[in-house]
Specification:
Layout (H helix, E strand, L loop, with lengths): L5 E6 L11 H4 L4 H15 L2 E6 L3 H9 L6 E7 L8 H10 L3 E5 L21 E4 L4 H13 L6
The structure holds 1,3,4-trihydroxy-5-OXO-cyclohexanecarboxylic acid.
């Protein structure tokens, strides 16, 4: 029996502080709540989902390097501040060539100019920003559709 497709969710630095971190920007939802809603939706869609958060650039890179051997079909990534700084994570993603959606909880284009540039967007299948936690669910639905899961 073949396993159902695997989707990885990768959360970058400071996202473990969601819920208490700058709630006027990021809202009151915690990372655990976001992951739980994603896991519930994944179950309904019939895909396997694995969530990972790190505050370390090297840990994120090494995680991404393991994606091909784990046969990851799609990734949902919020690189957080690394979005605007990390050529190294961009290169890691390019090296594995697995399709991904870039997600931001806030509308980065309405914020400081340094948040307007992303090292990831031109590699991404899609970019979602400003939808709050709903953005993750929208990205998961899109990913499932892309990898051929029939709509529930
Ligand atoms: C973020 C936006 C980034 O600019 C910021 O550094 C984050 C979170 C978002 O989800 O809105 O940490 O990626």
């Amino acid at each position: 029996m073949s396993l159902s497709p695997l989707i990885w969710v990768l959360h970058g630095p400071n996202l473990n502080r969601l819920g208490s971190r700058e709630p006027e920007i990021y809202g009151a939802t915690t990372l655990d709540q976001i992951n739980e809603s994603l896991l519930n939706r994944a179950k309904a869609l019939g895909v396997r989902l694995d969530c990972f958060q790190t505050n370390h650039e090297g840990a994120m890179i090494e995680r991404i390097h393991h994606a091909p051997e784990q046969r990851v079909a799609f990734m949902l990534i919020n690189p957080a501040a690394f979005t605007h700084t990390s050529v190294a994570i961009r290169d890691a993603i390019a090296s594995v060539a697995i399709p991904f959606v870039e997600i931001h909880i806030s509308n980065v284009h309405r914020r400081e100019p340094f948040r307007h540039h992303s090292y990831f967007s031109d590699l991404a299948e899609a970019v979602i920003c400003g939808l709050g936690p709903t953005g993750y669910l929208a990205a998961l639905d899109f990913a499932a559709q892309k990898i051929g899961i029939p709509r529930g």
